[in-house]
Design brief:
The protein has 291 residues and is an alpha/beta fold. The protein is 38% helix and 18% strand. The protein is globular. The protein starts with a strand and ends with a helix.
């Protein structure tokens, strides 16, 4: 199992030196990947109709492609994972270009996690339809994979047109691996057909119910004529939700799950005093739990 970290988006601050030191430190510790959340705009919780998300306009989020372009230049080995980019609120050809650029600058280290999202405020702010996002995302994936693997693309779909054109440079990985997030039945079936892996939600915890979901997902993968052993699954350990005395037990439970290939450690929500304390927390976890 590959064990990475969740980039502490809302708590790390804006100092590029701190971000550089964080990325270099987790790479030096042997963590395999950095996973970054995505939020383009935050809503006002006092807006008409209210707001139920834990994140608002007061929470800072570094844009994942820009962030990873920066991280690509200050690291050598660690994988860079979007977890997740809300694809249908973005323009597919531009995302293909951005992802290819990160992949080139990092030497082929990007894993693109995508999802359909739940937040109509962001879709409205970005000028995209919220109601047909599930249908559009499948066409987006087709367009992007063509752009990543061909010098020239001619494509005429329901929502996308590419008039005999291509992106340059092409990515190192052709195509860039795409993983999907979300837990609904339609998302799991879509991931089984079209994705290279599945990224779980933070509420997804190891145990019989989680194993049942993974086994069902693997069944969908087989139904799609694909090999479940080649399909990745990423879990998450939120340290704020697990007492320190149970960290080793939690890790053992994840390792006992059939089909889980990746795990990331989330240090947000612990109430650390300084942004650099996220590194200290990961150092302790590495020493006390990972060994």
């Amino acid at each position: 199992m590959k064990i990475g970290v969740v980039f502490p988006q809302t708590e790390i601050g804006e100092d590029p030196a701190v971000i550089r030191d964080y990325a270099q430190a987790v790479e030096a510790m042997g963590y395999t990947h950095i996973l970054a959340f995505d939020s383009v705009v935050g809503a006002n919780p006092d807006r008409p109709g209210g707001w139920t998300s834990q994140y608002t306009y007061r929470h800072a989020f570094h844009e994942p492609f820009v962030l990873f372009g920066f991280c690509a230049g200050v690291t050598r080995r660690i994988e860079l994972v979007t977890g997740i980019v809300i694809l249908p609120q973005r323009q597919a050809t531009l995302v293909a270009k951005q992802a290819a650029a990160v992949d080139v600058l990092s030497g082929g280290r990007l894993r693109l996690g995508i999802g359909v999202g739940w937040n109509p405020v962001e879709f409205e702010a970005l000028g995209e339809s919220f109601t047909n996002r599930g249908k559009r995302v499948e066409e987006q994936l087709e367009v992007m994979r063509r752009l990543w693997t061909r010098e020239l693309v001619t494509y005429a779909g329901r929502w996308h047109r590419v008039p005999d054109a291509g992106i340059n440079p092409l990515p190192i990985q052709r195509p860039i691996p795409i993983w999907m997030g979300g837990e609904s039945e339609v998302v799991l079936r879509r991931a089984a057909r079209l994705a290279d892996g599945w990224i779980t939600l933070q509420t997804f915890r190891p145990g019989p119910a989680a194993q049942q979901t993974i086994d069902r997902l693997h069944g969908f993968v087989r139904e799609a004529g694909r090999d479940p052993t080649a399909f990745g699954i990423e879990g998450r350990v939120a340290l704020a939700q697990v007492p320190p005395a149970e960290h080793a037990k939690e890790l053992a439970a994840w390792r006992a799950m059939r089909g889980v290939t990746h795990l990331c450690v989330n240090t947000m929500g612990l109430g650390v005093a300084r942004p650099t304390d996220h590194v200290r927390t990961l150092e302790r976890f590495k020493k006390d739990v990972l060994g």
